[in-house]
Amino acid sequence: MTAAAPRRRGRPSRTDSAAGPAARDRILAAAGEEFSERGYEKTSMRGIAKSADVDPALVHHYFGTKEQVFEAAVQGAFAPVLEAPGSITDGPMDGVGERLARFFFGVWEAPGTRRALLAILRSAVTNETAATVFRRLVFTQVLSRVAGQLDRPDAELRAELAASQLVGVAMLRYVIKVEPLASEDAELLVARVAPVVQEHLTGP
């Protein structure tokens, strides 16, 4: 029997390639789980491939580098977040703090988007590559739109201070799980945090 020719590195098999969008979707789902549970540093392309039940070459074929897989996985689940800033800035600016806080905790409370947020937040604090993706997705695409609605010379700083308040609470509640904050009702958090966010955005 003639031995099969070795597969060229970096090229998916015909079987894998034929899987098409289904295989790509499995890779993204597996990547989201891996990054969420392990963080950026400890997640490997081989581990993602194993979790998705595909050849590692297929992961490279569709996405290229680990950074690109990370960004694709996060951005896919993060899409509702990126599309929402319009609903935050619509309406009187004296209520933007509550709208932003309500939107932020609403996203965290939804299981589908929480996984993506956990992946990016856990990874961003330990890895500069993941931090770059975090800044690009959150600060550039979301907060810049909020800052653009503020008629202040320091609008960008104000938006970043508001974000630091929200991200800090998220870190303690969803990542570190400090009690009683971790078990508190989300509506109470909105009521407590929204005035602080409002002050950062429109206060003196």
* Overall pLDDT confidence: 81
CA-CA gap between termini: 81 Å
- Tally the helices: what do you get? 11
User: What's the gyration radius in Å?
Assistant: 20 Å
Q: Element order, helices and strands?
A: HHHHHHHHHHH
Q: Summarize the amount of helix as a percent range.
A: over 70%
Low-pLDDT runs: 1-11, 14-18
Q: What's the β-strand tally?
A: 0
Main sheet makeup: none
Q: Indicate the structural class.
A: mainly alpha
What fraction strand? under 5%
Cα shape = elongated
Descriptive overview:
The chain is elongated and about 55 Å long. The N terminus is likely disordered. It is mainly α and 204 residues long. Helix content is 75%, strand content 0%.
Keywords, separated by commas or semicolons:
11 helices; mainly alpha
Topology:
Layout: H1 14-19, H2 21-42, H3 45-52, H4 56-63, H5 66-82, H6 85-89, H7 96-109, H8 111-124, H9 128-148, H10 155-175, H11 186-202
